[in-house]
UniProtKB/TrEMBL annotation:
It catalyses: 5-dehydro-4-deoxy-D-glucuronate = 3-deoxy-D-glycero-2,5-hexodiulosonate. Catalyzes the isomerization of 5-dehydro-4-deoxy-D-glucuronate to 3-deoxy-D-glycero-2,5-hexodiulosonate. Zn(2+) binds at residues 198, 200, 205, 247. Pathway: Glycan metabolism; pectin degradation; 2-dehydro-3-deoxy-D-gluconate from pectin: step 4/5. Binds 1 zinc ion per subunit. HAMAP family: KduI. GO terms for biological process: D-galacturonate catabolic process; D-glucuronate catabolic process; pectin catabolic process. This is 4-deoxy-L-threo-5-hexosulose-uronate ketol-isomerase. It comes from Chitinophaga silvatica.
Length: 280
């Protein structure tokens, strides 16, 4: 088993005006989240957010610290959010175990020294999608099922954006320091997410797209509202969204995505909306 990580520096809106397609993808796209028997991380300097995945198959994976954190264990000064997007898995936190079915979530607070990931069935391995942010306080570890989530339905089939938003690890469901995570499922026939688009200067996001059918793709839109860019994405890839950027997408089919947020703004509804006709 190995832990693999990379670091991404922050970029200003002025800088990305000069980026070509390859540069844009190199800076913002996380192409590989899951690899069998590995824990993979991308550390972004936007709010010190970390996104990654753990995929245990025939053996357990331990959450290990990385050199960049300069900490004796991973959660010394961090909190962790997990959403399982594979087969049923088990997360061991200290002496307690939590079973996570498909699309169930787990929050782990600052200070836990031992976290271990297992798959219940190696033939159908778990895929633990991971988000982590700096933490100033210890909040209790808690599993959040889809029944525990705050659920909102938005959009309409007529505008191609009929979707269900599952708020899983948010401050209306449980206490966290700054991490918030949820999952948006698009209905068949709908392809647009987060439209009308918005920005929020006091928090950033990472989007993880999954349940993208074979031979289909999602076009993710980013950039300032008056000067947008796009990145074509495949199944089980993630993209970093800076605070100054919109974060919207349209697929060639319906799909699901997980949004993770960090920053000082914990109010889910606090955002600066962009009129569709004003986007450029």
């Amino acid at each position: 088993m190995s832990t693999i990580f990379e670091s991404r520096y922050a970029n200003s809106p002025a800088a990305i005006k000069q980026f070509d397609t390859a540069q844009l993808r190199q800076e913002f796209l996380i192409e590989k989240i899951f690899e069998a028997e590995e824990c993979r991380w991308t550390y972004t300097h936007y709010d010190r957010f970390m996104a990654g995945g753990a995929m245990p198959v025939s053996k357990a994976i331990k959450l290990e610290t990385i050199d960049l954190l300069k900490a004796p264990y991973f959660l010394e000064r961090r909190e962790l959010g997990i959403i399982n997007v594979g087969g049923t898995g088990i997360v061991q936190v200290g002496d307690t175990t939590y079973e996570l079915a498909f699309k169930e979530a787990l929050y782990i607070g600052k200070g836990e020294t031992q976290v271990v990931f297992h798959s219940k069935d190696p033939q159908h391995p778990a895929k633990f999608y991971l988000n982590s942010t700096p933490a100033h306080h210890t909040y209790p570890t808690r599993k959040v099922s889809r029944l525990d989530a705050e659920v909102v339905t938005l959009g309409a089939l007529e505008t191609s954006n009929h979707r269900t938003i599952n708020k899983l690890l948010v401050n209306s469901v449980l206490q966290t320091c700054q991490l918030q995570m949820g999952m948006t499922e698009l209905k068949p026939g709908s392809v647009w997410n987060t439209m009308p688009a918005h920005t929020h200067d006091r928090r950033m996001e990472v989007y993880f797209y999954f349940e993208v059918p074979e031979n289909q793709s999602v076009c993710h839109f980013m950039g300032q509202p008056q000067e947008t860019r796009h990145i074509w994405m495949q199944n089980e890839q993630a993209v970093i969204s800076p605070p100054w950027s919109i974060h919207s997408g349209a697929g060639t089919s319906n799909y699901t995505f997980i949004w993770g947020m960090a920053g000082e703004n914990m109010d889910y509804g606090d955002m600066d909306h962009c009129r569709i006709n004003d986007l450029r």
